[in-house]
Amino acid sequence: MWVVGTVRESQLALRKRLRDAERNLGVTRSILRSVLESVPDPVVVTDADGRVVDLNARARPLLSAHRHLGAHRRRAVELNRSAFAAALAQLDDRRRRELTLVDTRDGADVLFELLGIRGRAEPVTFTVAVLRDVTELRRAMRETEDNYLRLRQVEAQVRTERDRLEQLLREHVALEQASASKSQFLANLSHELRTPLNAILGYTSMLLGGVGGAVATAAQRRYLERVDASSRHLLSLIEDVLDFTRIEAGRMPMRLTEVSLPAVVRGLLAEVEPLVRRAGLTVVARVPRTLPALRTDRQKLRQILLNLLVNAVKFTPRGTVEVSASHIPAHDQICISVTDTGIGIADDQQAHVFESFRQVDSSPTRQRGGVGLGLAIARRLAEMLGGTLELSSKLGEGSTFTLTVPRRARARRTTRR
Ligand code: ADP
Fold first, then answer.
1. Engineered SS bond to 245: which of 48, 95, 183, 226, CB 3.0-4.6 Å?
2. Span from the CA of 359 to the centroid of ligand 1 (angstroms)
3. Interatomic CA distance for residues 126 and 128, integer angstroms
4. What is the pLDDT of residues 369-410, one digit of tens each?
5. Nearest-CA neighbor of 72 among 110, 104, 109?
6. Going by DSSP bridges, is the β-strand pair 282-286/320-328 parallel, antiparallel, or unpaired?
7. Each residue of 185-218: b (16+ CB within 10 Å) or e?
8. Angle CA 117–121–123, to nearest 5
9. pLDDT over 60 (residue 363)
10. Average pLDDT, the chain
């Protein structure tokens, strides 16, 4: 009796311990379940052969093939499962691998990084696979890489552009130096040419004046006069080159004084009078006496207008040359125009006549002399006075050159080009 009672008691105790153990197991299982479900990434547990034995809610739309799935989604799950099994079998040393699965809810491709953790609970081995959605991360990485590449390209472009600018600057400096040497050379040359030419002019004038004996024949006098005229022409060309190089080198000084324009124009007309008479032209001056006094560089103003007048006479076979002036109160400027009824200048040539050494007719057979510097000098002188020199012309009808200068020029540094 005593023995039987003891055995029953120990059976009861064993059953109780068994029940307790089962209860504890149930609790542990449900804790594990809720841990599994609370993981924000899809988690899949597989057996040693890679068969799925458990998965959390996040993994279900990818790998769970329950009965109610349509054929399409079932097929997607099958494909996902084989992709998953293949990735699991090929895990690298870091136990990681990337794979693309289809989310069966919306059919979207999702790029995952699979992290596999192998575990052992005797007698079974298992793998816990955690899938991390890296679609956004990879996209951001690709974008960063693209941006980085673009940045490198822009950097390379900036470097090329900077090199090009540096090269241009070097070329510019070299050109400036070459231009300065050229100007210096021309200045020296002109100076050297002027000295013997002045001797030629001086001796010709002495011969014509009878110093050292009378000129014997009329023909000899005519020839001497031609030597004199040609030498004077040559001297004026050399003066042009000298002026041009002085302006280029920024060595043309400015002398501002009060200037009476009617007086300047009167003087100029008297100067070109012999030319005008020889050409059989009429010259008209319309310069109002009421014009306000100018403050400018008288010599430069004279040089510009003389050039315009001589050109007007030179390029007008018949008709009229007119000089007119007016005051523009709005800008306090003085406008002086030289208009002729001459050969005119074609539209496509008009911009070029202000370039140095440019002539509309530069053929060796041209009828009129000059080296094509007059207008280039005139425009630069106009700029030095703070003004402009513009042309309007019609081929065969005539030209108007208009000089516009401020009534009161301001002292400024000489321009250098
Ligand atoms: P140049 O001393 O050789 O005349 P310019 O610079 O004074 O040089 O003039 C340049 C060219 O412009 C001239 O050769 C001529 O072809 C043209 N030109 C200048 N003024 C006139 C004008 N009033 N009518 C027609 N052509 C002109």
1. 183
2. 6
3. 7
4. 566 789 999 999 999 999 999 999 999 999 999 999 999 998
5. 104
6. parallel
7. ebbeebeebbeeeeeebeebeebeeeeeeebeee
8. 125
9. no
10. 89
Q: Which one-letter amino acid corresponds to residue 219?
A: A
Tell me, using a 6 A CB cutoff, whether residue 343 lines ligand 1: yes
CA distance 253 to 258: 17
Residue to substitute in 345, 358, 362 for testing ligand 1 pocket (most ligand atoms within 8 angstroms of CB):
345
CA angle 330, 331, 334 (to 5 degrees): 110
Find the angle CA(290)-CA(293)-CA(295) to the nearest 5 degrees: 160
**Of all helices (H) and strands (E), which one includes residue 412?**
none
**Other beta carbons less than 10 A from residue 77's beta carbon:** 21
CA–centroid distance, 370 to ligand 1, in Å, is 8
Residue whose CB lies within 8 A of the most ligand 1 atoms, among 362, 373, 375, 403, for a mutation test? 375
Beta-carbon count within 10 A of 44 CB: 25
Confidence of residue 417 (pLDDT cuts 50, 70, 90): very low
Determine the distance separating the centroid of ligand 1 and the alpha carbon of 358, expressed in angstroms.
8
**How close is the Cα of 196 to the center of ligand 1, in Å?**
28
What stretches of 58-134 show up as alpha helix (H) in DSSP?
60-63, 71-89
Q: What is the pLDDT of residues 179-236, one digit of tens each?
A: 778 878 887 888 888 889 999 999 999 999 999 899 989 999 999 999 999 999 889 8
In DSSP terms, 111 is beta-bridged to 100
Q: What is the DSSP letter of 385?
A: T
